[in-house]
Automatic annotation (TrEMBL):
TM regions (residue ranges): 20-42, 57-75, 81-102, 109-127, 133-153, 165-187, 193-210, 222-241, 247-266
Protein's name in the database: Putative permease
Domain EamA: 1-124, 137-263
Membrane topology category: Multi-pass membrane protein
Cited Gene3D superfamilies: 1.10.3730.20
Organism: Owenweeksia hongkongensis (strain DSM 17368 / CIP 108786 / JCM 12287 / NRRL B-23963 / UST20020801)
SUPFAM superfamilies: Multidrug resistance efflux transporter EmrE
Swiss-Prot/TrEMBL keywords: Membrane, Transmembrane, Transmembrane helix
Length: 282
């Protein structure tokens, strides 16, 4: 998951530099690169392309496409730290949907941790003049659809290879974004081609390692590590884009991170106690 976080952080940076191109076009290029790389590695390993649980694989692709498109748009319009912090509410929605999709247990105190994170988002929204209501709702929508996509990934963890799961994103994205891009196409120029290639490659690496992580850990525990990406984003904003955050906006970001980190620690302790109890019984 840490490799994935670093890959996504660098990908987010390339998206910011590609602000001249429509978000839908970025998703299309990212998907074209991903589908070529994924098919190559699937063929090389003699793994069937279309997997077993096609229903959840297709849903994973659809939810992922919607979530990423909304996220790319907010990345282009907002400071990196603000856009990523809003989108990183996805672990909360992931944990919520996991109750119904995966049957995972949620403890009452976890809702308090999540409330702290949501309160942090409210503080950021209130003290960051760059965040309009439409952009805020787009970021929130991205988090919701990401949460749904992560649960679909976990749903197929015992039946489908991580590369197959990754393959379904571009499989859904290429035809949809290809059609949309026909109506708002902007031709890349010069260094933009190199950044597009880099964006696609970084995304592929990040997606594969994220999928492996999600398939080898409890979903509402491991996804919280994504919040480390906020640290990278704030560093990029400060060092590269000269973004100055108001003190209360930084407090809001800290609240978001605190809620999730405390939840990770709590979940880990509960899991260790459960495993210890099972061992003692045996």
């Amino acid at each position: 998951m840490l490799i994935s976080v670093l890959g996504f952080a660098l990908m987010n940076l390339t998206v910011k530099f590609l602000g001249r191109l429509p978000a839908t076009e970025l998703v299309l290029f990212r998907s074209l690169i991903s589908i070529v790389l994924t098919v190559y590695f699937l063929k090389r390993r003699h793994i069937p392309l279309f997997g077993n649980q096609k229903k959840y694989l297709i849903l994973r692709g659809i939810f992922g496409v919607i979530g990423l498109t909304l996220f790319f748009y907010t990345l282009q319009k907002l400071p990196l730290g603000s856009a990523i912090t809003i989108q990183y509410l996805s672990p909360i929605f992931t944990a919520f949907f996991a109750i119904f999709i995966l049957g995972e247990k949620m403890y009452k105190i976890q809702w308090l941790f999540f409330a702290v994170s949501f309160a942090g988002i409210a503080v950021i929204k209130g003290f960051d003049p760059n965040i309009s209501l439409p952009l805020f709702l787009m970021g929130l929508g991205s988090a919701v659809f990401s949460g749904l996509a992560y649960n679909c990934v976990r749903k197929v963890k015992d039946t489908d290879h991580p590369l197959v799961v990754v393959f379904y994103f571009p499989l859904m994205a290429v035809p949809v974004m290809g059609i949309i891009s026909l109506f708002n196409w902007v031709t890349p120029i010069g260094w933009e081609w190199g950044l597009l290639l880099l964006m696609g490659t970084l995304t592929q690496i990040a997606q594969v390692y994220m999928t492996k992580a999600l398939q080898n850990a409890e979903v509402n525990e491991i996804t919280g590590l994504k919040y480390l990406g906020v640290i990278f984003a704030l560093g990029f904003d400060f060092l590269i884009f000269d973004v100055q955050y108001r003190p209360m906006a930084l407090v809001g970001i800290a609240m978001v991170l605190s809620g999730v980190i405390i939840n990770i620690i709590y979940k880990s302790q509960k899991r260790r106690k459960a495993l210890s109890a099972q061992t003692n019984i045996s």
